Amino acid sequence: MSFNNLDNLYRQVIMDHYKNPRNKGVLDEGSLTVNMNNPTCGDRIQLTMKVEDGKVTDSKFEGEGCSISMSSASMMTQAIKGRSVEEALKLSQIFSDIMQGNDYDEDELDLGDIEALQGVAKFPARIKCATLAWKAMEKGLKEEEDNQ
Amino acid sequence: MNAREIRELFPILNQEVNGSPLVYLDSAATSQKPVQVIEALDKYYREYNSNVHRGVHTLGTRATDGYEGAREKVRKFINAKSIEEIIFTRGTTTAINTVAASYGRDNLKEGDEIVISYMEHHSNIIPWQQVAKQTGATLKYIDLQEDGTISLDTVRETVTENTKIVSIMQVSNVLGVMNPIKEIAEIAHQNGAIMVVDGAQSAPHMKIDVQDLNCDFLAFSGHKMCGPTGIGVLYGKKALLKKMEPVEFGGEMIDFVGLYESTWKELPWKFEGGTPIIAGAIGLGAAIDFLNEIGLDNIEKHEHALAAYAMDKMSAIDGMTIYGPKEAGKRAGLVTFNLEDVHPHDVATVLDAEGIAVRAGHHCAQPLMKWLKASATARASFYLYNTEEDIDKLVAGLVKTKEYFSDVF
Predict the structure, then answer these.
(1) Which of B292, B312, B337 marks a domain boundary?
(2) Selected residue of B126, B342, B349, B352 to mutate for chain A interface (largest A Cβ count, 10 A)
(3) Is the domain of B286 the same as that of B397?
(4) Chain A residues inside the 8 Å CB shell of B409
(5) What ipTM describes this predicted complex?
(6) Among A88, B74, B310, B314, which is most exposed with the fewest C-beta within 10 angstroms?
(7) CATH 2.70.98.70 at A3-147, yes or no
């Protein structure tokens, strides 16, 4: 592998999200809050989401981590805003399929920037970085569903 | 010693990773194995695999001789008084847990103190947290100086007459600091406490003499010193071990078994319940022979020279932060660092693309990371098979990493 192959991992759009993270911050008290960390490497995220009438109306994140984990968190918060809980969870499933290199239905939901993270699947050591924020989202929304 | 020739004895190092020759700089996590160790394991399984200490047949005797012969090699390696003081364990973690669960639980009560330091590995923190919770004892931390070293004055302030156990690593897996164990042990003993030493990062790299250190327990792992995974050692002073209860019960460790009561074997076997780690011990014995042939003093000198060379070259890179003492001679063979604006995972991924293996993360030392105010760091660690050329490649890789990340931004 040469440095050129790294470009499949560190795509421009990923670096843009890393350097200029979208939705950085914490939503006000009373929002759905999930803290999650990756115990093997020290990455950590605090995800806050506002869910109203079965819809994710807002989402922000705070955290520390590598370019992959932080850009993935930025893209994820962007992707779920305005979506129904069901769609957000579906996105999470699609993202998991992308990471595992499984086939997924491209037309089912608009993936936007997320597709840039496809290259991570070829770097098995980094998949956990990319999935951290998504796992936090899934945990939060599933708990929310259970409480309904 | 000639690292280039030694390198030839490690078959795994002779390969390409991601299109470049492998540069293995992660020996503090686990070392590679020389042909002598691989062949010893192969020979055991091909020629005399058998259970030990039982049966009358020839293979059983050979296996027992191999296993107990390895124990004698370990005894000599750390200059213990007798083989009764050498217990085979799964590794450093199991060894420290055995001391905490047996000695700790029997000897600690409310008001007693256990003293460790901020630089400890999780395996020398959590067993003490647990035994503190179980007994009501208090866990105390020795603070570090600005350069990450331990001052004996701070040890004197922290260790009191209530302290029953002091447990410190001999060499830090993050800072490369070499702790004054002999002096700390003296302070512990003056206060009536016992001294436990985590030797995971020292035993592979320097001569250890448990009688000279006067430590009460020493724990280390085989896999970091050219031996196989799954084997480690707990050394303990005979007088203490004799009074201690085993932690694991079952076959192999018993003397007589009745319906409701049983008695234990003599030392060291009472601590080795179940079929022991026979192949692992034999492999560790071969690793000790190998290290002795090269000489621990030579290995230590070689690694310190590499560390000084790496410190020199790496600190010349713009935006480089190196953790731990900067002075040559104060640092064992590893360099923990961060490159400005590039997360250590990203550093490790880019280096890996060049065939260079380094560790990135919290190195199983979260309290130390907090003390360093770093969520993660990268680490290059050296062993007897590393050369200055490896470090040149690392430095070139780091320069490229910097360029790569400033380009994509």
Answers:
(1) B292
(2) B349
(3) no
(4) 15, 19
(5) 0.85
(6) B314
(7) no
